Amino acid sequence: MHRLLVPIKGVDRDHLSQFEYALAFVSEDIVSYSVDPVDLTAKVDVTTVEACSAVEQRINELVQRYERGDFGLPKRVYFRQSRQLPTIDAWQGLLDRKWITPVGKGHVVLRGLAATLVALLEVKIDTMFSRAFCAEREFYPSTILCETLDRAHHFTSFPEHMDFVAHLKPDLTIIKEFEKQCREEGWSAVAHKGRMAEHDYAVAPSCCYHCYEAMEGWRLASPGRSVTATLGCHRYEGANHRSLSRLRAFTMREVVWVGHPDYVVESRRKAEELIVQWAKDWELAGTFETANDSFFTNDYSVKASFQRQQQAKKELRLEIPAEGHSISVFSSNFHGTTFGKAFNISVEDRPATSGCVGWGYERWVYAIFSQLGFDPNLWPPRLRDDLECHNRASIQ
Fold it and tell me: How do the residues of the chain divide into helix, strand and coil, expressed in percent and rounded to 5?
């Protein structure tokens, strides 16, 4: 193993975390990596000396991507709430209590109080958000057509995230050979070689894509409609799969608006007020601020700058004291007419506007335990009351 030290002084400090995140996808020859924010250097351990030159070249390409152009307006913080927080290793605490069990990289099973919190989040969103917007409940499949993701421009924004779905070729000989090899040797990825059909589906990386594809060709009555759904989503994030903050398989809840621009903008504004009030009620330490997606493409700076200038993406970020950073648990997104045009959805004879807000359930659970510990009796009064009301309703 050999260590590379690569200068990254051109990377905007506000985007260092996204640059570090992207290092996971530079090369399979990278064993480990870190970013020194003081001397602005990427410290990368590479498998062999022979691989160092190619790895360094790719890191420099990544540096150019994140230093290219103007990222638009600086980050704007709309809400900040601080409180004295203990340093709690929530991941280890959840493991010790068996409230989570890892079942593969980036996959977990939740139970006990962790699972109860997820159920509480689901009910609170129903009562606080879905009713406020008269959102219709929809249920989506866990997989999605690759054609849909292509039309939504997902492959040109987040290609590194994709988990594709495949199956054995519908051929009796191939199926028998696969079964025989697994019976005699046990399963391994080698058994798939040459036996898989072309895949036309992927595991859904986000919840709202199904909403748009299911409304293709609709002519909506003004001002539009609101939809809500919960979906198990997948995003491959390489070495970034750590604890509950970045899972490969996670649970997303969304409320989506499609219709007249004023309807979408006003609904989004109201939802942002509600999420800030929720954070206040539960006394959670964090910020609500502008953000941008971690686009993994050469036009990163253009897309990131556009999102910031248009305030198209905002996030509620909650502190994780033991890790010295915050994580996004809620996002608010404005898409303009992107999906209305892509799926021929209209209102008042023009392409519909869309926007959505989304919650990552496992991240909420992680942030709550990280800030407040494992004894609900010591939690803030409003959170404790909500939990007790939920538990009583569950018994009845």
Answer: 40, 25, 35
